[in-house]
Amino acid sequence: MFKARRTYWLAQIGGWALLSLLIFSASTFSNQKIELKMIVISTACFFVFGILLTHLMRFFFIRMGWLNMRLTNLIPRIIITSIVVAAIMSLLNILVSHLISKTPLKFSVVEFSLDVSATLIFFVLWNGVYFTFHFFQRSREQEVNNLQLTASHNEIELKNLRSQLNPHFLFNSLNSIRALIDIEPHRAQENITKLSNLLRKSLIIGSEQLVPLDEELSIVQDYLDLEKVRFEERLEIQQEFDASVMNFLIPPFMLQTLVENALKHGVAQLIEGGTVWIRAKKIEDSVVLEVENTGNLRSNKKDSIGIGISNTLRRLELQYRGKATFNLKQNTPNTVIAIIEIKDL
Prior knowledge:
Layout lengths: L1 H29 L5 H29 L6 H31 L7 H73 L3 H22 L4 E2 H19 L3 E7 L7 E2 L3 H12 L8 E10 L2 E9 L6 H4 L2 H14 L3 E9 L2 E9 L2
Parallel strand pairs: 2-4
Antiparallel strand pairs: 1-3, 4-5, 5-7, 6-7
Helix pairs in contact: 1-2, 2-3, 3-4, 4-5, 4-6, 4-9, 5-6, 6-7
């Protein structure tokens, strides 16, 4: 607001000063009979009257609400107002000339009309510049508001997506511990402690928009430790990580969701169990995250894509705007792989 006001006054003073200087120069060289003192006074009055009248005209526009009008309704009003202000300016110029020349006041309709017509050009130009600047400024403000609204909407949606993952993640962990309560109470207590620590970590990073990959892997490891209780020898974990990508920022629970999906739709469906491979590597200008598991991709992909994968797709779209891809496919006859590729921004 302060910047716009400063720009307005700089343009006001600068524009009328330049116009007054041109009029002063033209009057000095075109009419040698008029005293220099009279020209200086007349030009100074023109400068002051110009700023005063246009500022009052601007105040009138704002009070009348014309700044929000459509162009078709605005143009006639601007022209009429400009004519009225030009007439006032001409009357003031006549009055000033009479006072400084000390001659009898003479009024000629023809001369007055010519003076109004000449002055009208200045006010029409002023209004053209003012409303062009105002419309441009309003357009920029509207664009900024739209961007802020979109960003706010995206942030809310991201938070909602993250909040949907936490209960899903918690219930799976609790199911793992429940199996131990009757047969191994002491081990169940130990895993409850692990779950408590895991939930504390997840609450910390779950409120973040992006987290380093190593923090996400810490959550994944704690989750797998709990799942090992349920699967025991039926679950084998293989991990391959490129040290150069460990600080790469990703949305929280992104990798953990893929691991959970691999267990639920892959290993858990097999009587003999299976293996989950977790990989993170750098390929050219992209970071690639892979979660591969023993199993088969169902022919009906709609059934195999649950809330976790659906949220992953939506979060990648919101967070990276086309600079990240997700692919779920049958890698070998006996393994399914989920791949996230993110451009290293």
